[in-house]
Write the structure tokens for this entry.
Amino acid sequence: MGAQGPADGEEHKPFIDQVFEDQARELSPEEAAELGLPLPDEADDLDELEEVDPPAESLLPADSVVAESAGPAEPEVVEPPPPVELADDDRALVDEAMKKSGLIWVTTPAMPSGRAFWHAWLAPTAYLLTGPGEQPDPDWPEGSSVSVLVRSKDNAHRLVSWDAIITRVDPADDDWDAATAALVAGRLNLRESQTAPARWAEGGALVYRLQPAGTLGERPGTYSDASHREAPVPTTATTVTGKPWVLHKRGHSGRPLS
């Protein structure tokens, strides 16, 4: 049986045009139910719901949306407290003690036993050189407070202690040249001293600035009666070999050496 052609008076349409026309035609309720599709009225309701739905970010708390749009918060820069001048008598005592002592002890709450440092003194500031190949870097925070203990040059006993504020000296600071020149002069066995400041600036060395905080601790006439004994600072240093052999060591006979 052959396929039936178009009825009389109807125009023959290509197959693809008929497909497009069928896709554009609205389905009847029966056809939609048979295909499992929502009815035209239900589809309109779904479209309205999709248009009414708020964006996902509006469901979040307002502060979280603002925080995301503002980006990560920058860390707050805390300025170190300014140095405080000592009284005339106290300043003269500290200046005289610091000029005569090449070694000072610096104590902090985290390091109550103190640590010895050699320094360069440019009144009223002490400069410490730390880093690779130099004194161990204590990694003091900017603006932290420390106590500086100075010994007497005559008997090596404690002479005076004064409170200081710690800041770091950068190569761009005004006192970098003067500080490094004083450190070069005080540094023992320094190679190529002319280029040392440039090596310190590029090689990771840190120069600390210790400025007076305006108060003294112990001083002549006000020394504490405490023993000031502290446990030794922990260290990995050890003797890995036996005692060295000694030439002409004394024997068991006790005879004097000739």
